[in-house]
Amino acid sequence: MPAASVRVESVTKRFSGHTAVNHLSMEVAEGGIFGLLGPNGAGKSTTIRLIMGILEPDEGKVVLFGSDQDSRKLSQRIGYLPEERGLYKKMKVLDHLIFLGETKGIGRADARTRARAWLERLGVSEWSLKKVEDLSKGMQQKVQFAGALLHEPDLVILDEPFSGLDPVNAQVMKDIVVDIARAGRTVLFSTHVMEQAERMCDRIAIIARGETVVSGTVAQVKEDFGGRHVALSFSRDKARAEAILADRSLIAHLDDYGATAELQMADGADPEKLLAALVGEGVGLRRFEVVEPSLHAIFIAKVGADAAVAHAGVAA
Amino acid sequence: MKKIIAVVRREFVERVRTKAFVISTVLLPVFMVAMVILPALMMRGGDHTSRVAVVDASTTGLGQPVSHALESEKIGSGSNARARYTVRVFPATSHDLARVRDGLIASTGFSSDRQKDGWNGVLVLTDETLASGKLAYYGGNVGSLESMSKLQRAVSNALAGVRLAKSGVDAALVKQAMKPADMDTTKVSDGKLTGQSGQESFMIAYFMGFILYIAILIYGQQTMTSVIEEKTSRIMEVLTSSLTPFQMLLGKVLGVGLAGLAQMAIWGGTVFMISSQRMSLAGLFGMSADAAQSFPIPSMAPGLLLVFLLYFALGFMLYGALYAAIGAMCNTIQETQQYAIFVTVFIMVGFFAVFALIKDPTSPLGVTMSNIPFFAPFTMPVRWSLTSVPPLELVLSLALMVATLLACVWLAARIYRTGILMYGKKPSWRELWRWIRA
Questions:
Q1: Are A10 and A24 contacting, i.e. CB atoms less than 8 angstroms apart?
Q2: Is B236 in Cβ contact with A87 (below 8 Å)?
Q3: Is residue B428 within 8 angstroms of chain A, CB to CB?
């Protein structure tokens, strides 16, 4: 078995006043897409900075590619898109990408060729001689994305890569991420958008308040979470369903989105009984499906309560 | 190493490309040349032949020797010398003195193109002139201190001659005795003549100190600003993942330093070109060759130039590293001011030490200061230009500077490493110490 791309061993990082990451362990195996999920302030970015060696852990250690060298020595094999996007505003786009390539140890001529290819691929090649500050935020993000991937790293670490992008650009980026994984390279990205993670990731770790809550393959996480889940879509007369949905002997937990809902059946309750009750009540249904729990549901169930408590704690 | 070069190139190219660089490169010399040329142009009037009317109301015929003395004054020397004054004597008595004088004054003080035979000035001599030296001059150029002192000197000499002649001293002897002292000064270094005059050494020393002072202040601040900029634009985070803080800082300091040196080189080259072509250029501007000759364009001995450039580059980078460290500690330009003031004080002490050193280049103070890396860039070139410095001392001072430079970059890098990700919070001195040790 090949060495894990990233192994985080019981790492703790404290900032003055609070512990951002608390004895966190995780392992990102080689290949595939790994999702680091968590609510805002869970310690995702801190974890990523620790992996990148930008921050030093107070306790524990981070091992990359099974090597005892630090991330800067291995930086040629790693591509990094930080959460806080930043580029030299006055530099021309192409020059900037060449510079980023050079800092990764690529020769100048080579970096130029690759930068051109990336700009082409991301559809911003006509901007290559413009200054960075003349670009829209979304385009700047694409440029930085290209900068992180220019040197074809084995491990790509993306901190909230899709935030702030319109659906079209998000799609472009998503395709690129999937391509990287398909080529056998490893992608680690953080997000708090569960649907995205669910569609893209092979494996995930959900962290909250600096600790791992759940981790494993997506299928494993769902199976471990257990219970029977039903996804509903209403076409009319949703109001008539309210009493049934409020029945705790039938439904353990309800996630109401208005036109749709996801719910977890109570122990021993039967989905057929629920369907019969809804139809009997005259509720119009477009969809009634027994499903695996969504990551979102798992996330809310595992983290929601904690997060609420944490917020209350802060307020007090 | 390749990475450092990439950083150096980026810093250099991005800086040299800016409008600010181009503008300052062009405008600063224009400004400095204007500072030199304008006064010269303004004083050009003093180099014209002045028409002076001498009203002689004395009973001893004082007008004759005075007009002789004035007529023998020359502008310039050698073959293209011209008379400084054209003189005409108007005899008068004590009765019609006022009338003659006022008549002449009526045609005085016009510019030459408006009244060709007007007077530039009227000199009034009376008996009292010989006795007590009192005389009056009415003219359009009394505001020019130089013209007045020249005129006064010429008249004083004439009066002294007349007085001595009256006491029976031979006229030839008087002339001999009145010859002024004319001292040439030449600097000696290592027992050899350098060909520089004392005046020139002083000029060079002062000029070098000044250039370094300006360059450090401008480019040092730029280094600091660019560190802050990297922090606020968050580009830092990408860079720290592939570069060590030492590489980033050294690259930055070298890159900014090179940009500064490039600017100096452009200026230096221009000065060299102009000074080698100054005769023809002067003609272009309609200036006399003398005026051009008198421009202070000092020539530099190659040894001095080398020492100056070495210290310039090292000093520049040393202070650049200090400024970069301050940038790493702070989040905004405003915040940097309270730390930057310490560095400014160092620069000021170094710069003003130049003045003390010019007075006494061999003093223990000078020797000590040229071994302290922060002051050496100012003091050592001055010492070198004014006295002879033992090679061993030079080597020691240079070695100390290089060591301090590296130590400063290292120290700055330590602060940088921790400081770059500390947003919105200024460290206390104690925290700073922790960062350095961490």
A1: yes
A2: no
A3: no
Query: Is the domain A227-292 a CATH 3.30.70.100 member?
Result: yes
Look at residue B346 and tell me if it is in a domain: yes
Q: Give the best residue of A88, A97, A132, A149 to mutate against chain B (max B CB count within 10 A).
A: A88
Cross-chain residue pair A82–B237, CB shorter than 8 Å: yes
Which residue of B240, B421, B430, B431 to mutate against A (max A Cβ within 10 Å)? B240
Interstrand relation of B74-75 and A284-291 (parallel, antiparallel or unpaired) = unpaired
Give the list of residues 6+ apart from residue A302 with CB closer than 8 angstroms, or none: A206, A208, A213, A214
Structural Rg of chain B based on CA atoms: 31
Same domain, B230 and B378: yes
Say which residue the tokens 């001595």 belong to. Answer: B164
Element (H, E) at A138: helix A137-149
Q: Is B234 on the interface with A (CB under 8 A)?
A: yes
Side-chain-side CA neighbours of A32 within 13 Å: the count stands at: 18
pLDDT for position A316 = 34
Q: What is the pLDDT of residues B119-144, one digit of tens each?
A: 888 888 888 887 888 888 888 777 77
| Last residue within a domain, chosen from B130, B145, B177 | B177
Range of the domain at B417: 2-30+195-437
Angle, CA of A160, A161 and A165, to the nearest 5°: 110
Q: Are residues B135 and B167 in the same domain?
A: yes
Q: ipTM > 0.85?
A: no
Is residue A310 pLDDT above 60, yes or no?
no
Domain boundary assignment for chain A: 6-223, 227-292
Cβ of A78 within 8 Å of Cβ of B3? The answer is no
CB-CB under 8 Å, B241 with A52: yes
**pLDDT of B269-308, one tens digit each?**
777 777 666 666 666 655 555 555 555 455 566 777 788 8
Point out the residue among B237, B242, B244 whose CB comes nearest to the CB of A86: B237
CB–CB contact B239 A90 (8 Å): no
Looking at the structure, tell me whether residues B159 and B199 fall in a common domain. Answer: no
Minimal Cα–Cα distance from B6 to chain A, Å?
A: 6
Indicate yes or no: CB of B6 within 8 angstroms of CB of A78. Answer: no
Cβ A22 vs Cβ A178: under 8 Å:
no
Give per-residue pLDDT as tens, A216-248: 998 888 888 877 888 889 888 888 888 888 888
Chain B positions touching A87 (Cβ under 8 A) are 233, 235
The domain A6-223 having CATH identifier 1.10.260.40: the answer here is no
CB < 8 Å to B236, chain A:
86
Q: What is the pTM of this model?
A: 0.70
Q: Which two tokens stand for residue A144?
A: 């930085």
A311 pLDDT band, cuts 50/70/90, is very low
